[in-house]
């Protein structure tokens, strides 16, 4: 049995990561890998219910951080860890870097508290690879405006997303071996080429 691999995908809203995750799942399955595609907040029945609250219900920053980590704990214990133990590749649309970027940098919530929650919830577990779809907030905002009604995060102003982007940059600087940074302002085809180069360098799969 091949060893499980844990990949997360990050970026500000409108970065376009979802279609690339679907493509990657197909790419891995074509190579005979078992793949779990999942997302945060969410990925389990309980965590999806928490997601609804976090995305649509007003609450203070600590409540938001606790709910996001509660969802993560359930997801990790009941789905991600069993899938990794069974040798699957787990493709997770957002993980804890999003909490540091959105709750930490975006909302200005205490990073030390987030680090404590991270260690309680994850017990040292981190993605093996995190693909950050990076692009300027103005480009992402134009893309979002074209497609859908905004949730509690998507309706934030450009300054919020500048902080979120800076939050991702700090996480990437702190753990450069885990992060691969893609220029997500490029066309979808050009982003895919970058993603393929990352896969090439991180194989075998
Ligand atoms: P997103 O992943 O963009 O899904 P969709 O494409 O369906 O909108 O939305 C999730 C939102 O949740 C996004 O705005 C970021 C936010 N979020 C946090 O604030 N903290 C977190 O820890 C996570 C995982 C997500």
The overall pLDDT average reads 97
Helical coverage, percent range:
55-70%
Under CATH, the homologous superfamily reads: P-loop containing nucleotide triphosphate hydrolases
Number of DSSP helices? Answer: 8
Shape: globular
Major sheet details:
5 strands, parallel
Catalytic activity: dTMP + ATP = dTDP + ADP
Protein name: Thymidylate kinase
GO biological process, one term: dUDP biosynthetic process
Function: Phosphorylation of dTMP to form dTDP in both de novo and salvage pathways of dTTP synthesis.
Describe the structure in your own words.
By secondary structure, the chain is of the alpha/beta class. The chain has a single domain (5-201), classed as P-loop containing nucleotide triphosphate hydrolases (Rossmann fold). 57% of the residues lie in helices and 13% in strands. It contains eight helices and five strands; from the N terminus they run βαβααβααβααβα. The protein has helices spanning 17-30, 45-56, 61-85, 96-106, 111-122, 137-147, 158-174, 188-202, and strands at 5-10, 35-39, 89-93, 129-134, 179-183. The protein has a five-stranded parallel beta sheet with strand order 2-3-1-4-5, with helices on both faces. α2 (45-56) runs antiparallel to α3 (61-85), α3 runs parallel beside α5 (111-122) and α4 (96-106) packs across α7 (158-174). The protein is globular. Residues 13, 18, 40-41, 55, 68, 93-94, 98-99, 102-103, 153-154 line the site of thymidine-5'-diphosphate.
């Amino acid at each position: 049995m091949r060893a499980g691999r844990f990949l997360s995908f990050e970026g500000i809203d409108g970065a376009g990561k979802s279609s690339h995750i679907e493509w990657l799942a197909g790419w891995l399955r074509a190579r005979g890998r078992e793949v779990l595609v999942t997302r945060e907040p969410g990925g389990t029945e309980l965590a999806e219910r928490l997601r609804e609250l976090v995305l649509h219900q007003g609450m203070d920053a600590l409540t938001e951080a606790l709910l996001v980590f509660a969802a993560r704990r359930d997801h990790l214990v009941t789905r991600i860890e069993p899938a990794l133990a069974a040798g699957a590749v787990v493709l997770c649309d957002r993980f804890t870097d999003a909490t540091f970027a959105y709750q930490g940098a975006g909302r200005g919530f205490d990073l030390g508290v987030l680090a404590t929650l991270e260690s309680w919830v994850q017990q040292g577990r981190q993605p093996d690879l995190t693909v950050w779809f990076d692009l300027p907030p103005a480009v992402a905002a134009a893309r979002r405006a074209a497609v859908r009604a905004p949730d509690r995060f998507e309706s934030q102003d450009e300054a919020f997303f500048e902080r979120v982007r800076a939050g991702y940059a700090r996480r990437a600087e702190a753990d450069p071996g885990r992060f691969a940074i893609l220029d997500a302002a490029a066309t979808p085809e050009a982003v895919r080429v970058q993603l393929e180069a990352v896969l090439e360098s991180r194989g075998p799969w």
